Amino acid sequence: MSQNVILYTNSQYSSPYALSVYATLLEKGVPFELRTINLATGEHRADDYVRLSLTSRVPVLVTGGFSLSESSAIIEYLEEVYPQPDFASVFPDNREQKARARQIQAWVRSDLGALREERPTTVIFDARNPAPLSPQGQEAAAKLLSIADLLIDDEGSHLFGSWSIADVDLSVMLNRLCANGDPVPEKIKAYIQRQSDRPCVKQWWALAKNIRSI
């Protein structure tokens, strides 16, 4: 496809959901323009942006005359518009593994609210939060680590043998703890490092760090 593709994210590059779409575009090799929205000044509530997003949230993908928000929907759309074999898939080929990847994506977006609040993604590229986790945060962290222990092998390999977009989503959630200095098992540290070293993820966090150095 030759249509111009635009991805909107928040100006701090702190949205893990925008990262997920950004990684999908890079892994597929789809050229795109990255634009930012300042949530602090309310740019996401401007009429023009609301017409694009419907939900007034980031990320938003614009391609041709079509726009779409909500990262899971965007990734599914990109999988259909840029399919194999011409473009890489960001999901496993195996049907059951693909379903599991989607389950993981849905879970990290809908659960663990206390952990997301007390360990925002800014701890990954900016200052740590020195406050201990609340009882609710501890419960969420324990649940996350327990499930990650079931999913991740002793070497900290990709979840399904080869990389998938679910690795980005799960590793970022886990890195909220690891980057903040909260206790994390060694195999999970290895998994986080493996995912953090992937070029699509490194480039995203570099953007976040550059914003803070300006």
TrEMBL record:
GO molecular function: glutathione transferase activity; maleylacetoacetate isomerase activity
Gene3D superfamilies found in the cross-reference section: 1.20.1050.10, Glutaredoxin
Top-rank taxon: Bacteria
Keywords assigned by UniProt, alphabetized: Transferase
Cross-referenced CDD domains: GST_C_4, GST_N_family
InterPro entries in the record: Glutathione-S-Trfase_C_sf (IPR036282), Glutathione_S-Trfase (IPR040079), Glutathione_S-Trfase_N (IPR004045), GST_4_C (IPR034338), Thioredoxin-like_sf (IPR036249)
Single GO biological process annotation from the record: glutathione metabolic process
SUPFAM superfamilies the UniProt entry points to: GST C-terminal domain-like (SSF47616), Thioredoxin-like (SSF52833)
Domain GST N-terminal: 5-86
Alphabetized PROSITE patterns for the sequence: GST_NTER
Protein name as catalogued: Glutathione S-transferase
Organism the protein comes from: Pollutimonas nitritireducens
